[in-house]
TrEMBL record:
This is ChrR-like cupin domain-containing protein. It comes from Conexibacter arvalis. It comes from the Bacteria. InterPro entries: ChrR-like_cupin_dom, RmlC-like_jellyroll, RmlC_Cupin_sf. Residues 26-90 form the ChrR-like cupin domain. Pfam families: Cupin_7.
Length: 264
């Protein structure tokens, strides 16, 4: 079956198991989501010091090093850096110390292109403001602050980092054709969960939103930094987004804001 809609899955709530195959064979990992139809998946790998594997990849693989470091054919990928290995690539991956990394593994046979390693700190933020408009006539500005780490030349899938300043959010709900997923790296965020209840995202929280799944609103008290992926594009103004009013949100937002002091 396709992946379920989740908004507040913390990686520590997922059992640790050993990867039986693939680019991280033999390493402990936590599978955050898996598409049983295609085999595509996202996992948090917890590689011990000295872990090493030689692989010829049968699917494209993206990774973001959360802490520690790995080498790919001897080239270091330090904490905070992103790497992409295409389908068919042969690589030796080694953990130079205890390392946690987020791994996005495509469907077998998918994921072409060239190997790349990206240091997000060397990139500038891209800032865009769009307008949400609902059928009731309500409008609000939507702030997009992103760094695009990779755009697949065939599928159009986009991988990047997104940031939201403290005290900002979105009061409308939305849906769009691309599925999207995210992993919270810093900060907090309140969203409306798929069950209609408020869902809190903290550091280490993962979300998967299927195609055309209604999601949001959102709000952050401290600000946040998230790793994100959007299948088929998005985050550049080329995807149509439908916005709707969410009458339940004001009460949820007020309750969340009341938990935090204004100062400090």
């Amino acid at each position: 079956m396709a992946r379920a809609h989740v908004e507040d899955l913390h990686y520590t709530d997922v059992p640790l198991e050993q990867a039986a195959a693939g680019p991280f064979a033999g390493a402990p990992w936590r599978v955050l989501s898996r598409d049983e139809e295609t085999g595509a998946m996202t996992a948090l790998v917890e590689a011990p010091a000295g872990y090493a594997v030689d692989q010829q990849l049968d699917a494209g693989c993206e990774l973001l090093v959360l802490d520690g470091a790995v080498t790919i054919d001897g080239d270091e990928v330090a904490a905070g850096r992103y790497a992409y290995l295409p389908h068919g690539d042969s690589a030796r991956l080694e953990a130079t110390g205890a390392t946690r990394l987020l791994a996005v593994i495509g469907a077998p046979g998918a994921g072409g292109g060239e190997r790349s390693v990206v240091d997000p700190e060397s990139m500038q933020w891209m800032v865009r403001v769009s307008e949400a408009r609902t059928d009731s006539g309500f409008t609000e500005p939507i702030l997009h602050v992103v760094k695009i780490l990779r755009r697949d030349p065939v599928s159009g899938d986009v991988t990047g980092l997104s940031a939201l300043p403290a005290g900002m959010g979105q009061v409308t709900a939305e849906w769009h054709d691309p599925a999207d997923e995210g992993f919270m790296l810093r900060g907090d965020m309140l969203v409306l969960g798929p069950d209609g209840e408020p869902a809190e995202m903290v550091v280490g929280t993962y979300n998967w939103r299927p195609e055309s799944a209604r999601h949001l609103p959102k709000y952050t008290h401290t600000g946040n930094l998230r790793f994100f992926r959007a299948t088929g594009g998005g985050f550049d103004g080329t995807v149509t987004v439908t916005y709707v009013d969410e009458p339940r949100w004001p009460a949820m937002l007020a309750a969340y804001q009341a938990r935090f002091p204004f100062f400090g």
